[in-house]
Amino acid sequence: MIANYGYKDGSGEYYISIDTDKCIGCAAERACLAACPNEMFEIITDDYDDEVAAIKQSFRRSLAFDCAECKPAAGYASLPCMTACTPGAVKHSW
Amino acid sequence: MYSAGIDMGSRTVKVVFVEELKVDGAPQLKWGVKGKHIMFPEDLDADQAADKAFDEALQAAGLTRDQVKRVVATGAGRKQVKFASEDVTEVSAGAKGAVFMCPAARTVIDVGAEEGRGIKADGDGKVVDFAGNEKCAAGAGAFAESMSRALQLSLKDFGEASLRSDKTIPMNAQCTVFAESEVVSLIHSSTPKEDIAKAVLDAVASRVTAMARRVGIEGDVALIGGMVHNVGFVQSLKTALGVDQVLLPEMPEYVPALGAALIAAEGK
Amino acid sequence: MADTAGEKKEYWRWQESCWIDESKDWRAAKIVTAGIDVGSVSSQAVVCVDGELYGFNSMRTGNNSPDSARNAIQGVLDKSGMKLEDIKYVVGTGYGRVNVPFAHKAITEIACHARGANYMGGNAVRTILDMGGQDCKAIHCDEKGKVTNFLMNDKCAAGTGRGMEVISDLMQIPIAELGQRSFDVDEEPNAVSSVCVVFAKSEALGLLKAGYTKNKVIAAYCQAMAERVVSLLERIGVEKEFFITGGIAKNPGVVKRIEKILGIQAVQTKIDSQIAGALGAALFGYTLMQKQGASAKAA
Q1: Is the interface score ipTM higher than 0.95?
Q2: What domains appear along chain C, each with residue ranges and CATH number?
Q3: I need a labelling partner for A71 at 20 to 30 A (CA). Which of B248, C63, C177, C244 fits?
Q4: Could A61 and B136 be called an inter-chain contact, meaning their C-beta atoms sit closer than 8 Å?
């Protein structure tokens, strides 16, 4: 399952998507939890009883601002969460 | 010789004239403000409004069209100004004007009714980088305006009320429309107005600060745009940025028009 | 099947309906389950007998979730002579799902809508759009109704029921009439360009000033709404069959425009589109009971 956390508003589209099929039985020992400087990730048991990473509810409506520091306007080569997730389950839409 | 900047907004047209100064021993003082003028176009078409505002401004400053070397336009309707030789974005004009007014500023935060953004500028007021949250009322003055209406306070009283609060209530709603209902339920649960006002202004400040962090906060921070007048917002912004002071330029409404006039004066 | 066509003059938010399938005898059923969807604006209770829809009740959400949940299920209980104890498993869903006092489990509305749509629209349904009072969901699912891709937007009012309420207020036209009126125009206008509801409001006022009729402004707004929803759907990929649930399904002004942009007709159903979440929850309950039964037998 691709879980898209985030939103689209007038200013743009801001989603962090997690491919739960790559997330189940994590091969990176849940490195996302520690990698995010804002501690935005958590492990949940989803509706199909799989233990997967998700973005905490309190961040889902403000990603454009919460991720701002990892995304300097001058450009960036990598993001901590995506780098930490070696199975490649985490993606940013913006 | 004079140069002019014209800021075509959706509700107002502003004109600023600058003149060349030659101050011995102070070579940095190259230009001074000759005059400023504001006009409310009401039902006028954009090009008529630009003409009328410019004529009024010339008259007020005691100038004629021939004396004005160049005109640069900015603002949402900048493309409509036929007599301008060039147009520049609000970002460029705002940064230029802000650094002229506050020479130590390298970070310019611009919060108008419709947008909020963080700009990094160099010593000449040239934009190095900027990040904004445009086309969404949540990161702009419109958010505060809308909430002050829900609280039945003027924007000025709203800002002052917020200064009387020392509480930090997080707002759950990000969207202006949803936040209105949240404010209404806070009112119903007898939350003091000043605490609600502070919660709202803190929310706008934290969003704008996030944008400023994207460009990297350097040097002094100057605030421009309509929110300059909101003392509560200025306080919330200082807290969010973690700085002791935020520079507030003189004649804040005219900063973009001034920036455009300076760009005209320096004309390449 | 429940046919609510006769009541469609009322705006969906205010329409409360209760229905049971008289042809079924719940007393003869092996497993009775219920799903309760406590939404921000309306709440629904659905009762299933042996995995088949038996009855539902749809009403406005009250001041608190527990009472809304109780009132919703009470409607079906009263009409059928059932007692709460007769229901073996209750699943709560929706925004107030963790506050359903008699629920055995809470499941997100995403999973429940997919499951409900799979039942209502058939197992060929792959794409589901749910537009509720304060959110919008785009879901892609497999033939079993299991979610394969989803997004939920509850951050921004644009593209939610609230967005429609705002224009209805502004135009001072009952929300239920907006859809029909949007087709009563001399020519289809361009969509309102602002996404943000706050800015779209000023834009709409500007259009009125510029001489647009109210209907034409509504048409421009409905088109913007449709374009916005389509952009959400495109993120998860649009595949046939396409099914629409929630209040939006009752606004032809938006639905027809969505269908036109996508070039796909939405699957029609006679079941009230608003019960999809609660129905899915009740079906989840049924599956869980079956599993429990199977493991009990094995032990």
Answers
A1: no
A2: 5-117+273-298 (3.30.420.40), 125-262 (3.30.420.40)
A3: B248
A4: no
